[in-house]
Amino acid sequence: MTTQLLSTTGYDLERAAELIKKGGLVAIPTETVYGLGANGLDPEAVGKIFLAKGRPQDNPLILHIHDASQLYDFCREVPQTAVLLAERFWPGPLTMILPVRDTVPKTTTAGLDTVGVRCPDNAATREIIRLAGVPIAAPSANTSGKPSTTTAAHVLHDMEGKIDAVVDGGPCRVGVESTIVDLTGPVPRLLRPGGIGPEELERLLGALVIDRAVTGEIRADAVVRAPGMKYKHYAPEAEVLIVEGSSEAAARYIRSRFAPGDAVLCFTEELDLFAGLNPTAYGCALDPGSLSAGLFAALRALDNGTVQRIFARCPTGGGVSAAVRNRLQKSAAYRTIDAEQVKSEK
Ligand code: AMP
Ligand code: MG
């Protein structure tokens, strides 16, 4: 199959919507990452997403809607908290887990009795959903296990020949996947940190439980609420090792161990400190939004066949930094060193 490259102008949005209506696969731009979209109400079309990505069947998809009013079409119950969250954060990088109606096929929800729903902050994609007349089921548009895609070029790298089209909406503003909050229990539960920080949610909701999928490693056989969280994720070919501590301590630690095939993923402010150590900056430590926007592109750039090990610098703090930390920890399979605790081995 030839993958068409579409723009975000009117005629191309109609073509994208037609492809979705016909059961095709279209990669769509959103403010988080590119999504690999299909008609969320058509099990056959949704099945193709799993094939194109090599995605495990028990990993549910997020249903993308163009307006919050569509919540009632696909969710059995819409609690007041969901209405509040939608008013405050939609369109935006927040996915809500709610009880699913039987209008949504089991292939989309991976057989769960809940569904993840989101209204993305991208006018072109909302227009495609509106024109298609169906919600678009979409996971991130990357090969399963690899870093998510934040440009149309990334999508083509992973999906060319496997999907009908990609709509080029430019680089994604947020750059990491949506925050996921489960509203089906007695207290709202954060299942995945994202563009909306946990503090912002807590301020609005009053209480928020942080699921252990967010903070710790989950065994492959574990029963988890956000099934996707147990898989290897966001991982380049190289082994990633997070180096914590001050920039100076990290530089000392890395310099004493650096070998051919190693690289450093760092903050822009640290480029001078890591000179000669094959450094790639993914954003400024003082601007966490630049880190989330740059993380996946940097991990992909380091996936060039010559790098075997990446020493990565990771932000501390809340807001979107929590999401950056979560994705880096997963790409590092939680391998972390505190450079302050390691004696210099010159
Ligand atoms: P992706 O778009 O690739 O980041 O994948 C979507 C992720 O959303 C899945 O891996 C799950 O972790 C989460 N998700 C989607 N639907 C549900 C649901 N009904 N319950 C819990 N988590 C969900
Ligand atoms: Mg994904």
Instruction: Write down how many β-strands occur, each being a DSSP E stretch of 2 or more residues.
Output: 16
Per CATH, the architecture of the largest domain is: Alpha-Beta Complex
Task: Give the CA-CA distance, first to last residue.
Answer: 55 Å
CATH superfamily of the largest domain: DHBP synthase
CATH topology of the largest domain: DHBP synthase
Strands side by side in the biggest sheet: 1-8-2-3-7-4-6-5-9-10-11
**Quick one: overall form?**
globular
Please provide a written account of the structure.
The chain contains twelve helices and 16 strands. With 346 residues, it is an alpha/beta fold. It folds into two domains: 4-214, DHBP synthase, CATH 3.90.870.10; 239-345, Rossmann fold. The strands form two sheets. The protein has an eleven-stranded mixed sheet with strand order 1-8-2-3-7-4-6-5-9-10-11, with helices on both faces. The radius of gyration is 20 Å and the shape is globular. Bound molecules: adenosine monophosphate (AMP) and magnesium ion. Residues 139-140, 148 line the site of magnesium ion.
